[in-house]
Design a protein that fits this description.
The chain is α/β, with parallel strands linked by helices. It has one domain: 3-Layer(aba) Sandwich (Glycerol-3-phosphate (1)-acyltransferase), CATH 3.40.1130.10. Helix content is about 45%, strand content about 15%. It has nine helices and seven strands. It has a seven-stranded mixed β-sheet with strand order 1-7-6-2-5-3-4, sandwiched between helices. Helix 5 links the parallel strand 3 and strand 4. Helix 1 packs antiparallel against helix 3. It starts with a helix and ends with a helix.
């Protein structure tokens, strides 16, 4: 329980002490949005590194060379843990936001930091609002801002399984004209969810596969791109799990 308590204290302190920083970032954004993007990512990344350290998580990254350096991308990954965002952000080379549940807007200060790193908030219960979020995502990637989405739509609570990938999650890449980078996360639930409420040391593997250009896929695969990417991630997941003994 000590690790969980330390993380909670750190997060609470970070949010409260960051209030004047948020004001400074608002001012910076008026003069230079790009500088605000870089500074906000640096601050949030530092906070996530601290949380990773307090959790005792060891992160092994594979395939970073597969991430295109000259374009925004849509990272698509499996989702088992609250720590998935904490553990992945530092390994995205460019400005990257997450497509998160609209419920995250309930949390004061945290929601501002999420907006500052270009997170989008998806309301799956409202088709019109959901479409507006997708359109905003398309606009963002066209403007060079990468996004990360977990197409299962929620945290999968069953170990070593995958919920169906929502096909609509890929519209951002399709309409935005950017590649999809499949991202496999192995054992992130070993940090927290597998033994609630304790946070324990765990080795987590994050693997980036070669980018997929949806326009180059055949018609059948493109129509079922969610299943296609899910199978790529699933295959890599079990191979990595065996390789690292996780």
């Amino acid at each position: 329980m000590l690790r969980l308590i330390l993380i909670a204290i750190f997060l609470f302190s970070f949010l409260i002490l960051s209030i004047p920083i948020l004001l400074a970032e608002w001012i910076i954004g008026k003069a230079s949005p790009s500088l605000k993007d870089k500074s906000c990512k640096a601050i949030v990344s530092w906070g996530f590194r601290c949380v990773t350290f307090l959790a005792g998580a060891k992160v092994i990254v594979r395939g970073a060379e597969n991430i295109p350096a000259d374009t925004a991308v849509l990272y698509v990954g499996n989702h088992r843990s609250y720590f998935d965002i904490v553990l992945t952000l530092n390994h995205f080379p460019n400005i990257t936001g997450y497509v998160a549940k609209v419920e995250m807007l309930r949390y004061p200060l945290l929601n501002i930091w999420m907006k500052n790193i270009h997170c989008l908030f998806l309301d799956r219960s409202d088709i019109k609002k959901g479409m507006k979020t997708i359109l905003k995502g398309i606009e963002d990637v066209k403007n060079g801002i990468s996004l990360c989405i977990f197409p299962e739509g929620t945290r999968n609570k069953t170990p070593d399984t995958f919920l169906p990938f929502h096909e609509g999650s890929f519209k951002i890449a399709e309409k935005g004209g950017v590649p999809v980078v499949p991202m496999t996360i192995v054992n992130s639930a070993g940090v927290f969810e597998d033994h609630l409420p304790k946070v324990k040391k765990a080795t987590v593997v994050i693997d980036f596969q070669e980018p997929i250009l949806l326009g180059e896929l055949d018609k059948t695969t493109r129509k079922n791109v969610g299943s296609h990417v899910s199978s790529l991630i699933s295959e890599r997941y079990f191979a990595l799990k065996k390789e690292y003994g996780l």
